């Protein structure tokens, strides 16, 4: 055969091979995590009264809603350290909030963030901050780019490749995440109502029975639901971008909260209120090249127990990436799906300057908690919360006047029980502690034994207290940052705190 024909044949072979490889790449799904900071399952599709979340409700209707999804820990840095590695924070020494940022705590051998497992498999990774070139729209429609991990990422390297939405289309397949901060206390929370056509009526909200039924409580809760509705509006913007860029047919969407709601007895507390998150998985419709995976049932609600670390393992499986040997997360969708969990485990340790050590286990009916420091009060000082949580100010004010009773009064106790046990089905707010009830001793012993086994299996690093200099550092830092403001504010500051949004009350007292 003449040389030019051999050369032509070689070129054609390479072209066909490249086309086949390109086609295979195009058929691999994009995966988008939409992460709402500090959001519990307070959505219309979960049955929350008064909140209006049409976009997420529709996503759940066309996807799959998980009713029993929980994070490992109830605060951002420890929770994100878990679900970004597929590992329990307690297993990788990342369990103390805001720790190990000084370069001394790399991830253990064989443990990586999810992006570092996806990139070698051909995925572009992104943590989106920029959504639009329109400067006016960009003031609201943007991501935070949050990472906030309690370990040291390798020096000189980046955990994500991109941060601009407009770069995604040309870099498929991609794994991207976008973080929204409206449901996190701060400026975005305080102004969320300004972006809505409808705001929540405080008189119509359902508040937990461990809060006093007071206009401040109802106002804070209403503003929280406003922040949830603002997130829903942002998700609608994202779905429009996917459709505009013709990415809607090949992008899996996973919507989640990074932990539970930013409320007293919520964030930083490993009850359902601090660990329970929304979880919606949407599989693209109308794409024959992406048949739905095993166990995905469009439009259905699942009561399967899901840990946030399972999202890492499942994402890798859906991307066709082998699950790392050390990863503690379990796959819950597709042909690699593992048997459903019987138990979910979690806990909390130091949060800022506040030192607790709590471990918990939950099955579908009961939650058991073990408190290492029961002599420390529930409202042990946390100066950040004292400035940001009007309900804490209200609790302290009413308690000083002797006006608290029932579950709210229990929050003001000087000590806490060593063990707690709640029947979630009968007592969803977790206010009736059954740990000492004779008829529940078998349940308590079963859950306590499961908790012990788990702590041993993962080699729970939280069993070793931090050296005293670390909480001392955070205590001194909090004193510097917050003491002056706490001393100078009015006594009834909680009536007009920014966190109340449009529901501020008239102040009546002096400083």
TrEMBL record:
<feature type="region of interest" description="Disordered">
    <location>
        <begin position="491"/>
        <end position="511"/>
    </location>
</feature>
<dbReference type="Pfam" id="PF00884">
    <property type="entry name" value="Sulfatase"/>
</dbReference>
<keyword id="KW-0732">Signal</keyword>
<dbReference type="InterPro" id="IPR050738">
    <property type="entry name" value="Sulfatase"/>
</dbReference>
<comment type="similarity">
    <text>Belongs to the sulfatase family.</text>
</comment>
<protein>
    <submittedName>
        <fullName>Arylsulfatase</fullName>
        <ecNumber>3.1.6.1</ecNumber>
    </submittedName>
</protein>
<dbReference type="InterPro" id="IPR000917">
    <property type="entry name" value="Sulfatase_N"/>
</dbReference>
<dbReference type="InterPro" id="IPR017850">
    <property type="entry name" value="Alkaline_phosphatase_core_sf"/>
</dbReference>
<feature type="domain" description="Sulfatase N-terminal">
    <location>
        <begin position="29"/>
        <end position="321"/>
    </location>
</feature>
<dbReference type="GO" id="GO:0004065">
    <property type="term" value="F:arylsulfatase activity"/>
</dbReference>
<keyword id="KW-0378">Hydrolase</keyword>
<feature type="signal peptide">
    <location>
        <begin position="1"/>
        <end position="24"/>
    </location>
</feature>
